[in-house]
Design a protein that fits this description.
The structure is a single chain. The protein is of the alpha+beta class. It is built from five helices and twelve strands. It has a seven-stranded antiparallel beta sheet, covered by helices on one side. Helix 3 runs antiparallel to helix 4. The chain binds 2-acetamido-2-deoxy-beta-D-glucopyranose (7 copies). The site of one 2-acetamido-2-deoxy-beta-D-glucopyranose has 4 residues, from loops. One 2-acetamido-2-deoxy-beta-D-glucopyranose (NAG) binds next to loops.
């Protein structure tokens, strides 16, 4: 896999650079990608830092039953909005420890930034002094591509497109608590293409659909022919591969408090 990280679209689309994965001996695994917004910093012992600590300590108790967590705390400029989302197929234990890891890791990597986001395979965590729910404005794209190309790109794309389109509709109409869909379809030859899409459930059906459409439309630009790829945004994501990379049966238990 290689990873391309796009700068937030709010600033510019023109910078796409390669972000290497390092492995270290720290307790928490490395993020797939993360972002610290340097334009807006807080200082040690500030109200924002206190609110952030409070928000992150309470956040794990706000699971909506389907792996979505959200919390706002503080007032005015010191408001901290925090949210976390687990991939729709991961089980509650994996979800809980992923969210826990992400809180520790993101504070290490972004020690004084008011706005930050970290992506793991199984969950994402974001916080900001700005609104982060019900908005699709924050366009920090992360592209991850499988290096292997299909031997029959036209047929591959001809199968992938309809799969993701169907999953997009399923996820967008998933309701207030969960917007997630996974599935598979026949690819060229004897291959099977597996796909997964997800939005944070605070988005409206239309916002989710538009967000996914935007990133799915980028496949031909960034992954044309690759047998696997994913794009991560703070509020929507997709992934596809020619192997099963998600759990078919495991589901985050409805109403199960984590
Ligand atoms: C923010 O600042 C840190 C430390 O100077 C730097 O490593 C990082 O690349 C910066 N992030 C962005 C998005 O510019
Ligand atoms: C915020 O902090 C980062 C380092 O943590 C620094 O690189 C950046 O310049 C700071 N931004 C401002 C606006 O001071
Ligand atoms: C909030 O921040 C803005 C811009 O930085 C500033 O003009 C305003 O006075 C601040 N408000 C409070 C209540 O601190
Ligand atoms: C898939 O389910 C198995 C069994 O519950 C679990 O061990 C594994 O961690 C799950 N994978 C993910 C990504 O949650
Ligand atoms: C969260 O992670 C920290 C540091 O790794 C660990 O000490 C703590 O027990 C974890 N908490 C939960 C609820 O898993
Ligand atoms: C896959 O195709 C892209 C162009 O579509 C090319 O740049 C790349 O080298 C190919 N990768 C392999 C492993 O052949
Ligand atoms: C966010 O959390 C609040 C409670 O703090 C809850 O009322 C609200 O429904 C949550 N929003 C979403 C989209 O889950």
């Amino acid at each position: 896999m290689f990873i391309l990280v796009g700068k937030p679209l709010l600033w510019s689309l023109s910078f796409i650079f390669i972000h290497l994965i390092h492995t270290t001996t720290l307790a928490q695994p490395e993020f797939l990608s993360y972002f610290c917004e340097n334009a807006s910093n807080y200082t040690v012992n500030s109200m924002y830092q206190r609110n952030l600590k409070t928000a992150l300590s309470v956040l794990p108790t706000t699971n909506n039953g389907f792996g979505f967590y959200n919390l706002s705390t503080g007032q005015g400029n010191d408001t901290v909005n925090a949210a976390a989302l687990c991939r729709g197929d991961v089980n509650p234990d994996v979800c809980r420890s992923c969210v826990n890891d992400s809180m520790v890791k993101l504070l290490q990597l972004c020690p004084n930034q008011k706005h930050a986001i970290g992506y793991y395979d199984n969950c994402l965590l974001k916080y900001s002094n700005k609104q982060i729910l019900r908005t699709t404005k924050i366009k920090f794209y992360v592209f991850l591509a499988n290096r292997q190309n299909s031997t029959d790109i036209d047929r591959f794309n001809g199968a992938l497109g309809p799969l993701l389109k169907k999953l997009r509709g399923d996820a967008a109409s998933g309701g207030l608590l969960r917007k997630f869909a996974s599935g598979n379809t026949r690819g060229p030859g004897f291959s099977t293409i597996y796909g997964l899409v997800q939005c944070t459930p605070d988005l409206s059906e239309e916002q989710c659909s538009d967000c996914l459409e935007d990133i799915i439309n980028r496949i031909t630009l960034y992954f044309n022919g690759a047998v696997g790829g994913r794009i991560l945004l703070p509020m929507c994501t997709f992934r596809y591969e020619i192997y099963r990379f998600f759990n078919k049966s495991a589901r985050i238990a409805p109403l199960g408090q984590l």
